[in-house]
Design brief:
The complex is a heterodimer. Chain A is built from five helices and six strands, in the order E-H-E-E-E-E-E-H-H-H-H. Chain A is α/β, with parallel strands linked by helices. The chains are: A alpha/beta, B alpha/beta.
Chain lengths: ~180, ~375
């Protein structure tokens, strides 16, 4: 069973990203579950969201303590939050950043992927430079970096789940798929 | 059509497909999405209903009672303190034999202020006369809402459809949304011959003297007993249409089980997974999922628990000084039975119940002849 944790800030779309990724896996016939942590969710505060993916329906309902992989929507979080907490051996961290994987010494020992999802989002008119909406770009990057879910399923999920700017969101996901390292 | 839906939205779709005519509610976390989505459905024209905004949960149920008295199919949703504020009107709706359906999302009761999951809110309403149905998945939420309207309208008793805060209410899972035609064939429009009509002199809720009141209550009591059989029929008919039925109780790997755990709500799935793990270790574990709590299915439970040498009950609720409420009811139903019953209480106020914690309960029972006390708290720092 796959367990993936998303780190973001309230209002950035971590919850939507986790849901969209669940939809993408579901499109490929997987059993899925997506849920956020609730409580002190405020705009800008650190939040986490989770998905479980399995070959059969997911019946578990407890918190995820030892994720298989981690996705970081906002690298500034990493000064305050240990994003690798509980991360399983062999797991990867996907970070939305302009920097290179080698710029994150704290992530040593883990496979690190990077994508400038903020830059891609702004380029496609998703949010503003101060507050880019990065979730669709990050999912495109996730498809390529993980190899766990195909781009067509991610695009289908983005198309279904984007309330507005569907074309821009699709383009952002596709560009991030091609640019992630 | 299969979609990945939040538990709360699964409830909204169930209400839409049931063609509720009057919806009245007051927002409260974690229920708010249910009626938010319904108000959007009404605004978009996906559901032809009157959505009535009110200033409290007490008024929300009062609206539903008035609508139901006039023969309309009425729905409300609430949680925790909202449900407790409705308490007086819960009795009114049941005493008035009104087929109202409500979604109640299990949330802890203050103080301390806590928005997370616990079942004490609905269980503390067990004597109001409402049927209570607990759900274990988002699919079951949607299906149970639809079943609830037919059950309520058939036995003239209001029904609470109950599920766990956040664990289901805010969690996304794949849900099959039936076609409207399918549900129309299952749930015909409500035709209540006892409804009040404009221009016809009838009374509702007038004074009943001592020479009538008791018979009213006995009729309620008897209909309540009949609700169990009626639910079985409703569940069979629904399964014939959709392929999904749930049963009043659902045993899992119980046939040769030495230890059987009873669990309700979203715990049913995790306990099932733990049972599979224990079976691989050679431990003969089983699980009984309790869907209906009111009326209490004593006979069905006893039947399901027959193979067990030891019985375990997992309660995410507490009657202070008494213990877990499910355990208390089950002990009462099994008073002539000499098998030991472990009453575990865990997960109050949203505390996580992990598979390891559930497994530790089985191991407790495995290693002892009888429980050390009537109520055993698990996953605590004491």
């Amino acid at each position: 069973m796959l367990e993936i944790r998303f780190h973001g800030r309230g209002g950035q779309g971590a919850v939507v990203a986790s849901k969209m990724l669940a939809v993408a896996f579901f499109k490929e016939g997987k059993g899925v579950q997506s849920f956020p942590t609730y409580g002190a969710e405020r705009r800008g505060a650190p939040v986490a969201a989770f998905i479980r993916v399995d070959d059969k329906p997911v019946l578990y309902h407890h918190n995820i303590y030892t994720p298989t992989h981690v996705v970081v929507l906002d690298p500034s979080l990493m000064e305050r939050v240990d994003v690798t907490q509980g991360l399983k051996k062999g797991g990867f961290v996907l970070v939305n950043t302009k920097l290179a994987p080698t710029d994150f010494p704290d992530l040593e020992g883990f496979e690190v992927h990077v994508v400038d999802a903020s830059g891609i989002a702004v380029k496609h008119g998703l949010g503003s430079p101060e507050n880019p909406i990065v979730n669709t770009a990050v999912l495109g990057a996730f498809a390529k970096a993980s190899g766990l879910v195909g781009l067509p399923a991610v695009l289908e999920a983005v198309k279904e789940e984007s309330p507005i700017k569907v074309k821009a969101n699709l383009a952002a996901a596709e560009e991030a798929y091609n640019k992630v390292t | 059509m299969k979609k990945v839906l939040m538990g709360n939205f699964a409830a909204s779709h169930g209400v839409r497909l049931s063609r509720a005519q009057v919806i009245s509610a007051y927002p409260i976390t974690p229920q708010t999405h249910v009626v938010e989505e319904l108000s959007a459905m009404v605004a978009r024209g996906d559901l032809e209903a009157k959505f009535i905004k009110v200033e409290s949960e007490h008024s929300a149920l009062a609206c539903c009672i008035a609508a139901s008295v006039m023969g309309a199919r009425a729905f409300t949703a609430t949680s925790s303190h909202g449900l407790l504020l409705m308490h007086e009107l819960l009795h009114w709706a049941a005493g008035g034999r009104l087929p109202i359906v409500m979604v109640a999302v299990n949330r802890a009761i203050a103080p301390g202020w806590n928005i997370w999951n616990e079942q004490t809110d609905t269980l503390s309403q067990r004597d109001t006369g409402w049927i209570q149905l607990y759900c274990a998945s988002n699919q079951e939420i949607l299906d149970t809402v639809i079943q609830a309207f037919r059950l309520a309208e058939s036995v003239k008793i209001p029904v609470m459809v109950i599920y766990d805060a956040f664990i289901l209410s805010h969690t996304y899972e794949p849900v099959d949304i039936p076609e409207q035609d399918t549900i129309d064939g299952f749930l015909p429009p409500l035709d209540n011959p006892e409804a009040l009509k404009v221009g016809e002199a009838r009374a509702f809720g007038s004074v009943t003297n001592p020479d009538f009141h008791m018979e009213f209550r006995i009729k309620m009591h008897n209909s309540y007993r009949r609700a169990m059989e009626e639910f079985e029929q409703v569940d069979r008919d629904y399964a014939a249409l959709t392929g999904r039925g749930y049963g009043i109780v659902e045993p899992y790997r119980c046939d040769d089980a030495d230890l059987i755990m009873v669990a309700a709500g979203s715990l049913a799935g995790p306990v099932r997974m733990v049972v599979d793990d224990l079976r691989e270790k050679g431990i003969k574990a089983g699980r009984v999922k309790l869907k209906m709590f009111r009326p209490f299915p004593a006979a069905q439970l006893k039947e399901a628990l027959k193979p067990a040498k030891k019985i375990l009950v997992l309660d995410r609720n507490l009657s202070p000084g008494t213990g877990g409420i499910f355990a208390h009811e089950i002990r009462s139903a099994m008073k002539d039975d000499s098998r030991p019953i472990w009453g575990f209480v865990a997960g109050l106020g949203g505390r996580d119940i992990t598979p390891e914690l559930i497994a530790s309960m089985f191991f407790d029972a495995l290693g002892a002849e009888a429980p050390v006390s009537n109520t055993i708290f698990k996953g605590v720092r004491l």
